[in-house]
Amino acid sequence: MHNANSLAQQLASASLAEVEDEKLSDGRIIQQQKLKPNLDTIKKLLLDGNGEILLDVGVDDDGNSLNLSDEDFEHYMNELTNIAHELESEATLLKKRSNIKFRNQGNNSTKENELKTTDRDCYNYGHVLIRKRCGKIEDLLEIRVAVVGNVDAGKSTMLGVLTKDLLDDGRGKARVNLFKHKHEMETGRTSSVGSEIMGFNAKGCIITPTYLVKTKVTWEDVCSNSSKVLSFIDLAGHEKYLRTTCFGMTGHSPDFVMLMIGANAGIIGMTKEHLGLALALNVPVFIVITKIDMCPKNILEATITQLTKVLRSSGCRKIPIFVNNDEDVLVATSSFVSERICPIFQISNLTGENLPLLKLFLNLLPSNYNLKYATNKPVEYQITDTFSVPGDSFLLGPDTQGQFIPTIVKSIQRKRINVPCASAGQTATFALKKTKRSAIRKGMVLVSKSIQPTASYEFDAEILILYHSSTINKRYQTMLHCGTIRQAARIVSMDRDLLRTGDRAIVRFRFLQYPEYLKPGTRLLFREGRTKGIGKVVKGYTLKEEISGNHQNNLIQKTLHANDGNNDGNTAEFDKANLQINDIFTDVNSKKTRKKK
């Protein structure tokens, strides 16, 4: 392991220097300018950070030392603790150090675990986590993490180790409680979208059976004792379940993606496919290399080198940060808001090596509710699954005729616990009236009446063809993923005669089964065999607005010109995402073609 760790450390030291140029503020980091914390400032930051903030103590806004002696630092921490208690929160010192910079930060020549003499001083610095105490379930901070990777990379085992408070035995002990179906237990391969939760209290302790002094804990136990909950979305790694994985990535709206890579296997199979999906959906990615206990040194080094090459390639353009200590975790967490940052962990689920570093990172993952969701907008709820509750019934729209039926919400649950309300960005379950379960399907929505929703068979989309072996014409059929929508669609018209790999176009799709509820600007994926493409919805047409094919081309051109002046920012962002992932998908499919030949 020493050689592999040395290689990772060399790559990390080079990457950390780049991170300083890429670091952005996410509302959770503040530099203290005075020796006495300000109550109003802390209160505002807690509100902006959805109940948690990370303070950098001992330096000012410019990174200069505040010269805190041992006595000053202790006094500051006491004041900070008192303020936290006034705000019904807890202040936890994560790291205290006597140097103003981290050991390997911004200096490639500094040896491992050594400091330059000029970096040492007699003052104190620290990182403090302030988090609200556990309260009402409806106010619980939730972060969704999608777990992806190639088959046999250890995804379900990793979740079992994190959520069940146990280590694996090398024969699947940790993962057995996560599977839903009998064939999953027999084969050890996930074929459905699984869900697990991991709770942290105000001090950052994980809510486990040991912590609660119980033999087994339920979701209600975890949520009742947690201030922050991570919801893991366990997705399938086998290629034949790619449809399920696409639905999990688009329909569950993950805040982060945890990409699993087996140290002994390297980047194979669906690894690049899943990385490309995360890039297409613009979701931050961190990587976990598993099975380091059974992997030879030279193979692990080859995996690290291969991974670094992929992340730094023109198709990905990520900055890898190899996390080897708690200081690396703090640097990675504060910089993870930048899309280019990609933390990498080397983990053993058998021995538990480096597991505390991953748990600390998960504890400090920032929330982005305020950036993604608007709590003052009308209600819109996407349906991802259905189940029956005795005595209750459900409702959904649009139905197969494109109609929305009025309903009343009888009750709401979060993490299987009854709550009086749910806010934007949260995962919740609703019990509705006067609709049979058979009338419900994935992809429907529950929306406010003020929206006046309409359903569309046809819609215009701006697309990019990532890969196709020949050409795409009108009447081409494909499987389309858009949020929770998963349905076959056909191209009825487009603004050019033919489409090939790398081409962009405005096309009009038509769903083959039933109309759907679409919002302009929503990202979409479509695939058919090896053909893959991405895009975004430009405009949906109601059933009354659908016009015969003689006028469709004219309408598409008008839609394109009408959006030229209004979507410049969105188009630029879309172009950026296209450039980042086009090389990855092209490389994956070209390798598959060579292998087949």
From TrEMBL:
Residues 140-372 form the Tr-type G domain. Gene3D superfamilies: P-loop containing nucleotide triphosphate hydrolases, Translation factors. GO terms for molecular function: GTP binding; GTPase activity; translation elongation factor activity. This is Short integuments 2, mitochondrial. The gene is DGP-1. InterPro entries: EF-Tu_GTPase, GTPBP1-like, P-loop_NTPase, T_Tr_GTP-bd_dom, Transl_B-barrel_sf, Transl_elong_EF1A/Init_IF2_C. PROSITE patterns: G_TR_2. CDD domains: GTPBP1_like, GTPBP_II, GTPBP_III. PANTHER family: ELONGATION FACTOR TU-RELATED, GTP-BINDING PROTEIN 1. Keywords: GTP-binding, Nucleotide-binding. Belongs to the TRAFAC class translation factor GTPase superfamily. Classic translation factor GTPase family. EF-Tu/EF-1A subfamily. Pfam families: GTP_EFTU. The keyword GTP-binding applies. It comes from Clydaea vesicula.
